[in-house]
Amino acid sequence: MISVLFAVLTALSNGTASVLQRRAALGVPDGEAMRLSLFGHLLRQKVWLAGIALVVVAAVCQAVALATGPIAVVQPIFVIELPATLVVAGYVMRVGVPRQVWAGVAAVTLGLALGMAAAAPVGGSEDVQGAAWIPALVATGAFEAVLIVSALGTAGDARAALLGLAAACGYALTAALMKDAMSQLDGEGALGLLTAWQLYATVVAGVGALFLLQNALQAGTLVAVQPMLTLGDALISITYGVTLFGEELRSGWWLLPQLAGVALIAVGCVVLARSPLAAANAAPPRVE
Q1: In angstroms, what is the C-alpha Rg of the chain?
Q2: Which residues contact 50 (CB under 8 A, 6 or more apart)?
Q3: Distance, CA of 142 to CA of 173 (rounded, Å)
Q4: Would you say 168 and 174 are in contact if contact means Cβ atoms under 8 Å apart?
Q5: Could you tell me which residue, 260 or 19, shows the higher pLDDT?
Q6: Which of 16, 47, 127, 155 has a C-alpha 20 to 30 A away from that of 252?
């Protein structure tokens, strides 16, 4: 229950941060795409800094969730970040929550419940055994390289979607590294955590994922980015959970309801990302 609670808090923080960061990214010139100077423009915007503050809160909550539960359980819960954020934003901005949003919320919620019930993740270790990180990091690096190179050859929503998936892969890697690092804290205390390479790799992967996400949000619309980011993070995290931590999922005919759950989540994310509350010109809460 602790891991689920903190996973929900993480989703709320990350969802709100995504909307704020999208708002800030709209003012960045196209010429700054895929350059470090992108951060120079964003750092001057209070709305972006507010989004980063929520990212920090989300990171702390995520660390607690991963330290107390399987990654295949914790990460998929994050698919609720967009629907929860839009519902809260509707009430905060006093614009009402349209039926379109409620339909998307229902689809995502039902899809998550169906997928998790069918998959029923169990077991797994708290840390990664042996040298399993080596092939995982090589495969992740190759996958990221293909996505980024492909994105550079496109523009608009196509680039946004590819970079959104690359960011999702980065965030999933960050979660896996974070879980492994937190196991060092449990086993060897603070000194073990501070001397673990996974802790510093978590920071590098997190910053890289953040950089890719900012470029995805700058390149295209939220409807192109959010489904790739949300589903990609969940599915890749489950892959890490199974391959690195030995977590087990139901197979066989159980794959059918699992795929149905994924499809419902995808449809829900698209519906939500197309709603007025998620549109680029929707006024977010004022940040002073």
Answers
A1: 18
A2: 20, 287
A3: 13
A4: no
A5: 260
A6: 127
